[in-house]
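Q: My labmate handed me this sequence with no annotations at all. I'd like to see what the chain might look like in three dimensions before we decide whether it's worth expressing. Could you predict it?
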Amino acid sequence: MESDLDAAHLESGFIDQIHIWLLQYPIVRSCFGSADRKLAADLFRQGVTLDQLDRALLLGLARKYVSALNSPGATPIFRLRLGREALEVLTKRPW
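A: Here is what I predict for the chain of 95 residues:
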């Protein structure tokens, strides 16, 4: 029972950290809704580390900023999905 509470606490902390990271970037306009929370929980359960996700978010943000510079009509980031796509790119390339 105690380990279930510990796991739930760790998962909650993981989700909260992702939310905090997203809020620090001006291009992100996410309300971090239930779909984002679910995706973050899924990533936690798949064993994705905060370090891996941090790198993926930075890659996704860099791509979005370049896109915004090249296209005056670029839109802000509204979903965590951007980080998921970048994470898939990072995990396919050994660095």
